[in-house]
Specification:
Elements: H1 2-47, H2 52-67, H3 87-90, H4 96-111, H5 117-135
Helix pairs in contact: 1-2, 1-5, 2-4, 2-5, 4-5
Amino acid sequence: MDVILATLRPILRVLPPLALWLVASPALAQSGMADMRTADRYASLAANASRLSDIRLNLQHVLLCLEGASGPEHQASAPAACSSAGAAAGLPIGSANHIRVEKASKLAAVAVTFHDFRPAHFTALAVQAVLDEGAR
């Protein structure tokens, strides 16, 4: 009996956090999808913008929604439009949408560095296309 209890004890310690994760994960996933949809709307605004400054501003919002306030590309000048965690934190790692978020984030991070309209515009279109795929 002692051997069985000794074997089960580590498993029983893991179950409460695991149960909490299972209960919390649908809420996190919904938050991640909401942030992804908001990022998609900002990507659409960026892709349809007629000025470079508008493209860059809207893509900063995209980055905030995808990476959260602690993301490497976050700039304090971009107001909070999404949850502080960002879509990447709310989506299951390895899921198709998590991969889309990572790719869109990398594209947006490049796009905000352009000093010319055309490359920023076309990269914003690519960000929008990647996010459109999963935000439906």
